[in-house]
Amino acid sequence: MIDLSKADGVWTVTINRPEKANSLTSDMLQELTRIASSAQDARALVLTGTGRVFSAGADLEEAKAGLALSPVWEELSVAIAALPCLTIAALNGTLAGGAMGMALACDLRLAVPNAKFFYPVMKLGFLPQPSDPARLCALVGPARTKLILMGGQKITAEAALQFGLIDQVCEPDALLETARGIAADCIAADPELVAQIKNMCSF
After folding, report:
1. Residue 107 near residue 126, CB atoms below 8 Å
2. Triad 51, 125, 30: Cα angle to 5°
3. I need a labelling partner for 199 at 20 to 30 A (CA). Which of 45, 51, 78, 161 fits?
4. What is the pLDDT of residues 105-147, one digit of tens each?
5. Residue 42: which of 72, 81, 87, 90 has the closest Cα?
6. What does the domain layout of the chain look like in residue ranges?
């Protein structure tokens, strides 16, 4: 349910469970974390999904069994954020719940026009993953972070672009091509230089 392809230094990681809105099981999260942790030699890493939803967050049955409180969500975000290469979330559709963390951990976020963004963690009786509020706040500011985490608002792609939550809106058939185009300079550059520039840009 997690597909990995490698071409010209770009690792493309695809969540492939469209019949369940790409909801994430513990095994899927562990596989994503393993891939992210092993991608030290990648020139760029692109996260995307199959179908009309990037990810609806946790699988409902596993969430009820404790997945919602698992540290694996944070482990995944930390692994992505620690990568020395450029990381891009190519959001093929709606991004919801705990899946927000992996996108927030990426350097850049692209999304299709009909994507929506929401993180109803408080309504469900949970705290967000530890690093998510700070990363979200760095992108959209404190008030808009509260709008999402406390107000439970669904944010459209247009609003997300205005907020700074995403960096570009792309048509579905151009999403991955756009991501690879953005990564082209990093693919061609010295990886050490890429890593140093990325570190200089860290907050």
Report:
1. no
2. 45
3. 161
4. 999 999 999 999 999 989 888 899 999 999 999 999 999 999 9
5. 87
6. 2-200
Residue with structure tokens 């999402």? 148
User: Which SS3 state, helix, strand or coil, does residue 69 take?
Assistant: helix
Cα–Cα distance between 158 and 65 in angstroms, integer?
A: 35
Give the integer Cα–Cα distance in Å for 157 and 138.
18
Contacts of 69 (CB under 8 A, 6+ apart): 126
| pLDDT per residue as tens digits for the range 77-88 | 999 999 999 999
The pLDDT value given to residue 34: 98
Report the DSSP pairing between strands 86-91 and 44-49: parallel
Instruction: Look at domain 2-200 and name its CATH class.
Output: alpha beta
Q: Tell how strand 10-15 and strand 2-7 pair up.
A: antiparallel
Mean pLDDT estimate for the chain: 96
